[in-house]
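User: I'm putting together a small comparison set for a docking exercise, and I want a reference complex before I start. The sequence is below, and the ligand is cytidine-5'-diphosphate. Could you produce the 3D structure with the ligand included, as structure tokens?
Assistant: Of course. I'll restate your input first, then give the structure tokens for the complex.
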Amino acid sequence: MVQKILQTNAELNDWLSEQNSAIIFIPTMGGLHPGHQYLIEKAKERKTQKNQIILVSIFVNPLQFGKDEDFKKYPRNISKDSELAFNAGADAIWAPNYFEVFPGGENSHFKIQVPQTLNNQLCGAERAGHFDGVATVIIRLIRIIRPEKLILGEKDWQQLIIIRKLFQELSIAIKIESYSTKRDQSGFAYSSRNSYLSDSERVNAQSLPNTLKEAKTDFEKEKVINLTKIASKLKENSLKIEYLKIVDPFSLKEIENLDGICLLAAAVKCGSTRLIDHTFLMQRKPIIAIDGPAGAGKSTVTKAFAQKLGLIYLDTGAMYRAVTWLIISNSIAPNDQAAIENILKDSNLEFKNSSFIEQKIFINNIDVTKKIRSPEVTSMVSEIAKQQFVRELLTRQQKAIGKDGGLVAEGRDIGTAVFPDADVKVFLTASPTERAKRRALDLNKRGFEFSSIEDLEQEIKERDKKDSEREIAPLKKAQDAIELVTDGMNIEEVLEELTYIFRSKIPEEVWAYPTL
Ligand code: CDP
């Protein structure tokens, strides 16, 4: 494809209609650096279909500059920017002038107002009107371009959160993907504004990333953050602090309880240059809870998802099935609680060979991986799983497996009872008919017999009913879970959607995918 630099809307529209492709859009203000390069490279790497193309816009948006800010001197060098963008994988660049984006001029277009709760924090509190200007131009740009996906950097975290909220509220179905802040070898975040720094200012500015990094290291050891200590280090290096705060990364509100993912964010003035930087703090690795009814395809996708993220896979259903198998094989009646307690209290349940594909489950050193999938176990498991002793025993074991985080757990009560503080909660479901079809395929593959799909559907409905109506930890969507209905979706599509949900909750800066 010929790489194009487009300027007018007419040129853009001609080009768009020639392509007939889905646009991956990366909006920039130019002054491109390795941070932008990374976003473009990621966009290229994540192209999932042949007909996607990457469009980078370069537009220095006057609406997002305050009247004493640097609109006039903001770096503009279209030939250097184009070279970088094309080398990184852009298919076209759109560099419109002001009137292409705002045809009627300043006083004739709608302006978006960012909600106070998000605007009055961090940079918004310092830069009146800045995020309103960002939101206004983004709406304009996406109306003109109509992209399928928007790629943004995590460097401007508040901007990312505001645009996500904007799209969510206006039901704009464009996906937003975000990627990490890129840093030079010294850890200094790339920014177009770095070019304003003199050599001596650049030396002082280094204390911004250094201090944040040190604070993160201290936090990992001591679980506390000393903002006063951070502030005095910044001041020692002649940096004037505009803000230095620990906030919830999504509400942007200041927080004191540092249990979940926290954002330690700072803005400083170094001479006349304003610099922002941040780091995420987290006490443990992420926990992802995937709950849902029987046969929703949880196992297949959860396993693949855990593998993709490089996290442990925990199949809690297999644990309930294993104890059920033990009870059946000892000829204990499902209502004989005393006998059940007696056999389970000294039993030993373990997962072995935690390679994701070949995970095996053992009870009392017997490999029951295959046996627990039998129709006999399936038909009794819900009866066993509703018992208080069984639930307490297995929940305790599950919590122990997840105490340092770093796992994707599937079940019925993961987001509600086992890991209510999970960072990502998904409720995966599908219609009973679809689930029965999937269960039939699965049983066929495993070599088990069944009478008919209708019977399977009936069995699934009964199990759902038992699981949902039991007293302790029933199957239900956690209030903060995202429901994903998977009818008509194949495994790759479900995985793609899970990845998207994951990334909207866990920044790449917190958990990057391992290189497999
Ligand atoms: O059959 P399917 O793969 O959908 O279910 P499973 O995940 O193997 O779970 C089998 C049964 O274990 C469920 O029907 C529940 O009765 C029980 N279970 C539970 O009570 N709590 C969990 N966290 C997981 C499973």
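The chain has a mean pLDDT of 94. Residues 294-295, 299, 316-317, 320-321, 381-382, 385, 411-414, 463, 467 surround cytidine-5'-diphosphate (CB under 6 Å).
User: Thanks, that's exactly what I needed.
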